[in-house]
Design a protein that fits this description.
Layout (H helix, E strand, L loop, with lengths): L2 H7 L4 E4 L11 E2 L5 E2 L4 H12 L3 E6 L4 H10 L3 E4 L4 H12 L6 E5 L5 H4 L4 E4 L5 H6 L2 E2 L8 H12 L3 H4 L7
Parallel strand pairs: 1-4, 1-6, 4-5, 6-7, 7-8
Antiparallel strand pairs: 2-3
Helix pairs in contact: 1-7, 2-7
């Protein structure tokens, strides 16, 4: 593990993530009845649970309002959910105030232009592989995986491995 990763990961206590384009591939399906659906990657969900079990916080910050996001957050035990914020930075500041955290203690994962103000403010700005060029240019880390295909898992694993927490989340292996 690179010393840089250890230094960057050590202060992080909260991961905030956009939803569309980060936890999903950015596709929004609306059927004839107006019912919206999204697809979430199961490994991202497991990583979020492991991150939270390690005593860290995870939150969602999205410009859109969606019942699907509310349901997925509940399924994963995510209590920090802010939807309908076209300007995300004030919402992010509010979250940090409530949790008594500084921007340096936050990792934000984004993919598109509305994420830029938060990415420029937090200690660890992360872009998914298929993010907009402007997001890629200010990210400290860029995932190999695109949004909705394990990018969040990649970030969680990298943070937890850098701090030595990852190995504690693995199930016991049978003696060989």
């Amino acid at each position: 593990m690179a010393n840089r990763d250890i230094e960057v990961a050590k202060p992080i206590r909260l991961i905030l993530s956009d939803v569309d384009g980060v936890l999903t591939d950015g596709s929004i399906t609306i059927d004839n009845a107006g019912v919206e659906s999204k697809s979430f990657y199961v490994r991202d969900g497991l990583a979020i649970k492991l991150w939270q079990r390690s005593g860290m916080a995870f939150g969602l910050l999205t410009a859109r309002n969606s019942q699907v996001v509310k349901l997925r957050a509940a399924e994963l035990g995510i209590e920090i959910v802010r939807q309908g914020f076209s300007e995300k930075l004030p919402a992010a500041r509010d979250i940090l105030n409530q949790l008594d955290l500084s921007p340096e203690q936050v990792c934000y994962i984004g993919d598109d232009l509305p994420d830029l103000p938060v990415l420029g403010w937090v200690g660890l700005p992360v872009a998914v592989a298929d993010a907009a060029d402007e997001v890629l240019s200010i990210a400290r880390w860029t995932t190999k995986a695109p949004g909705g295909r394990g990018a969040v898992r990649e970030v969680v694993e990298r943070l937890m491995k850098a701090t030595g927490c990852w190995e504690h989340t693995l199930p016991p292996q049978p003696a060989g």
